[in-house]
Specification:
It holds the Pfam family ABC_tran. Belongs to the ABC transporter superfamily. It comes from Devosia geojensis. Keywords: ATP-binding, Nucleotide-binding, Transport. The chain is an alpha/beta fold. It folds into 2 domains: about 160 residues, Rossmann fold (3-Layer(aba) Sandwich), CATH 3.40.50; about 70 residues, no CATH class. Helices cover about 35% and strands about 25% of the residues. It contains 7 helices and 10 strands. Strands 6-7-8-3-9-10 form a 6-stranded mixed β-sheet, sandwiched between helices. A 4-stranded antiparallel β-sheet has the order 2-1-4-5, with helices on one face. The longest helix is centred in the C-terminal third of the chain and has 17 residues. The structure holds adenosine-5'-triphosphate. Adenosine-5'-triphosphate (ATP) binds next to strand 1, strand 2 and helix 1.
């Protein structure tokens, strides 16, 4: 079966025949099997799949923080064989430092990279403004809501203008309305900062709303089961979620998961 819906024009990420096996206490755990995936520069690609299918593992392989067992991963011109400093990463938990203000939390990125602080401060303020946090740059994490904290951590991930943003269920811990707003904030940031986004989610609707393509993974060992092109106009608007075309995509994805035995509806 040809799982790739449309080959991207200019590849940014090339994952070729990648497998990952962990040495577990009870023997080998085959997390990923024979993954082939090409992602274009500037593309927004979401990955959906059942719990334990290897989504986070794949993201960690892309970051270079976890080595793969077989195959090859190239990001840009670089073969990934060690931690890749050219990425921004956002996890479900914001991991902000409680003793530093919002602005200082964003600036950590520059301090770690030993980048000039004055220019970094200007960019940090710009980013905070883009996500409507300009009045909170001196607030400490405990004074911020969950959504505001996660916005700060997105700004921190983007401070050094990474060409690739890796996001592992970044909105999974947020309430539905905050999540909607964060999705819009993220799309605005993507439009203003040319970058490729690799986005993991458990929400089919979120994947369709944000993405150019949605990658469906099978249960463990994770394989690329299907790739769906999302042909919806940008900028995306919340009302689009009621459109027939949008619901056709969510239905198609739901049916794929039913076929994989991930959803069972019998009573
Ligand atoms: N460091 C590790 N050592 C051993 N096994 C691991 C390790 N990391 C992940 N695994 C196993 O690899 C498989 C894939 O895990 P992974 O966290 O990538 O899945 P996931 O799709 O992100 O899951 P979820 O949606 O629940 O977050 C799981 O069976 C997990 O137990």
């Amino acid at each position: 079966m040809n799982v790739e819906a449309a080959a991207p024009v200019k590849p940014h990420i090339r994952i070729s025949r990648v497998s990952k096996t962990f040495k577990g206490r009870k023997g080998d755990v085959h997390a990923l099997s024979d993954i082939d995936l090409t992602i274009g520069r500037g593309e927004f690609v979401s990955v959906v799949g059942p719990s334990g299918c290897g989504k986070s593992t794949l993201l960690m392989l892309l970051s270079g923080l976890t080595p793969y067992s077989l195959g090859k991963i190239e990001v840009g011109e670089k073969l990934i064989s060690s931690p890749n400093s050219d990425v921004g990463i956002v996890f479900q938990q914001d991991v902000l430092l409680e003793w530093r203000s919002a602005l200082q939390n964003v600036l950590i990125q520059a301090e770690i990279r030993k980048a000039p602080l004055e220019a970094a401060r200007e960019r940090a303020r710009e980013l905070l403004k883009m996500v409507s946090l300009q009045d909170f740059e001196n607030a400490y994490p405990k004074e911020l809501s969950g959504g505001m904290r996660q916005r700060v951590s997105i700004c921190r991930a983007l401070l050094h203008k990474p060409p690739l943003l890796l996001m592992d269920e970044p909105f999974g811990a947020l309430d539905a309305m905050t999540r909607d707003q964060l999705q819009l904030d993220l799309l605005r940031l993507c439009a203003d900062n040319a970058m490729t986004v690799f986005f993991i989610t458990h929400s089919i609707s979120e994947a369709v709303f944000l993405s150019d393509r949605v990658v469906v993974m099978s249960p463990r060992p994770g394989r690329v089961e299907r790739i769906i092109d999302i042909d919806l106009p940008r900028p995306r608007r919340l009302a689009m979620r009621e459109d027939l075309k949008f619901t056709a995509y969510t239905r198609e994805l739901t049916e794929i998961f039913k076929g994989l035995g991930v959803f069972r509806e019998e009573v």
